[in-house]
């Protein structure tokens, strides 16, 4: 049931991707508004996850989870009835807000329910695989709903899933929360939201030029707010993000890996759907089905990686996964305007799925390994926030690269121009995956028993 929550949270980051071309025509969206339909969700989700994690810790994880489900469902219905671009973007932002309550509460419940051992490995393998496959499942479901119903059903479909989650959560979940002095970090919340929002918006403006004053100003402001956030967190008694959660080398490395994975699964896959529909002329359902090999590859690799995990530990998988994923993205970068899906797209998708499957199985487990119960919500939120903020920043950066290479900013729209832009975005994503492999080599170190503690082992502490 908790994995179902993770599925709809991740799925909603991509389910509208397939629907965007039709939604753009229906609502008269500009290209910038089209991007913000994706970015608004990921940014609100990622920026507010830390606060959501603390609310889950302090107010109660079950209670927070149920409230998040209700709000998420209502925002989905609102988005389905949107009559304009700003209306849809606002609804997507509210979806992200309530997802920021729901997701860390679900992951924190999983963390305290499975503190260690074989059951924890299995639980996190399932949870991580669902998170990894959710982005691709969203593309398939989005295509099915767009072609045979209406693009609006890509939002309305959440309502019955939310209803099931509410019933199951009310009956099956047990309340838990952190003990002791629980005060909210208001200044930390303001600075981290302002910092992440400014940074993402600055990268979005870079589509029109890196040297522009507004581009530089927003990026600089974002960095400044985030530096101030770290300073505040090091001094307040009850920080929004206890620095001990991210200061540990292994956990910090895992969070960085999640950011890169998010940039690929949210950002790079958007341009694949554009290529399939706009250049190759696939119908929405066919375009969604065309991404299915990615999901199948992740699902096929997950059981193998789960069995391998206790034998060799997470480090080899977390190094090999990004490298294999980078190869898949480079294969995708070889697309041409008149190329064959079977020759130019399918091999890259399968290889990318294999790489992501190897990475996702150990990733959530390592990111939350050794976290104290008091910090379970904050750590869970950081794990989710890393992926969503990585997706927001990745999408902004890939959009800038696409616009620059394709000549979109100057009005060029030929198939050759579009493919050149998409290819450049895939190459940039591949570079990011190589960097992720280096991060794993440098940061994910230590005996496998320490990286994946059993219930008998002490938690890992920062230091």
Automatic annotation (TrEMBL):
Principal location class: membrane
Pfam families xref list: MFS_1
Gene3D superfamilies named among the record's database cross-references: MFS general substrate transporter like domains (1.20.1250.20), Multidrug resistance protein D (1.20.1720.10)
Transmembrane recorded as keyword: yes
Organism encoding this protein: Labedella gwakjiensis
Keywords attached to this entry: Cell membrane, Membrane, Transmembrane, Transmembrane helix, Transport
Membrane topology (UniProt): Multi-pass membrane protein
Name used for this protein in its record: MFS transporter
Record domain Major facilitator superfamily (MFS) profile: where: 1-448
């Amino acid at each position: 049931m908790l994995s179902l929550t993770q599925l709809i949270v991740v799925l909603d980051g991509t389910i509208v991707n397939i629907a965007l071309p039709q939604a753009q025509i229906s609502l008269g969206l500009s290209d910038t508004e089209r991007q913000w339909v994706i970015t608004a969700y990921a940014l609100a989700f990622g920026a507010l996850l830390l606060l959501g994690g603390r609310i889950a810790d302090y107010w109660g994880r079950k209670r927070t989870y149920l409230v998040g489900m209700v709000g998420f469902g209502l925002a989905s219905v609102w988005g389905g009835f949107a009559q304009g671009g700003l209306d849809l973007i606002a609804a997507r932002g509210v979806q992200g807000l309530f997802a920021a309550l729901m997701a860390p509460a679900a992951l924190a419940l999983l963390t305290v329910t499975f503190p260690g051992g074989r059951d924890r490995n299995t639980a996190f393998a399932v949870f991580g695989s669902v998170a990894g496959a959710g982005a691709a499942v969203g593309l398939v479901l989005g295509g099915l709903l767009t072609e045979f119903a209406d693009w609006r059903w890509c939002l309305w479909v959440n309502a019955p899933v939310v209803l099931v989650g509410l019933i199951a959560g009310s009956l099956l979940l047990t309340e838990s929360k952190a003990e002791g002095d629980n005060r909210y970090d208001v200044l930390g919340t303001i600075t981290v939201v302002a910092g992440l929002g400014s940074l993402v918006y600055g990268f979005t403006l870079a589509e029109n030029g890196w040297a522009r004053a507004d581009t530089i100003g927003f990026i600089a402001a974002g960095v400044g707010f985030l530096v101030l956030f770290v300073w505040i967190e090091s001094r307040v008694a009850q920080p929004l993000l206890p620095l001990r959660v991210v200061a540990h080398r292994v956990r910090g490395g895992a969070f960085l890996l999640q950011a890169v994975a998010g940039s690929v699964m949210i950002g790079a896959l958007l341009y694949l759907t554009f290529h399939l529909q706009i250049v190759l002329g696939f119908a929405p359902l066919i375009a969604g089905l065309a991404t299915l090999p990615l999901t199948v590859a992740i699902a096929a690799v997950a059981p193998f990686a789960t069995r391998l995990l206790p034998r060799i530990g997470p480090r080899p998988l977390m190094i090999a996964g990004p490298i294999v994923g980078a190869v898949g993205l480079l294969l995708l970068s070889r697309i041409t305007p008149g190329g064959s899906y079977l020759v130019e797209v399918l091999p890259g998708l399968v290889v990318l799925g294999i790489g992501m499957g190897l990475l996702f199985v150990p990733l959530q487990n390592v990111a939350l390994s050794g976290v104290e119960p008091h910090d379970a919500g904050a750590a869970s939120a950081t794990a989710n926030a890393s992926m969503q903020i990585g997706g927001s920043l990745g999408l902004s950066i890939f959009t800038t690269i696409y616009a620059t290479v394709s000549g979109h900013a100057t009005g060029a729209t030929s198939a050759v121009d579009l493919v050149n832009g998409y290819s450049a975005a895939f190459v940039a994503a591949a570079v990011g995956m190589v960097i992720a492999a280096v991060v794993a080599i440098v940061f994910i170190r230590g005996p496998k028993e320490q990286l994946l503690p059993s219930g008998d082992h002490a938690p890992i502490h920062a230091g």
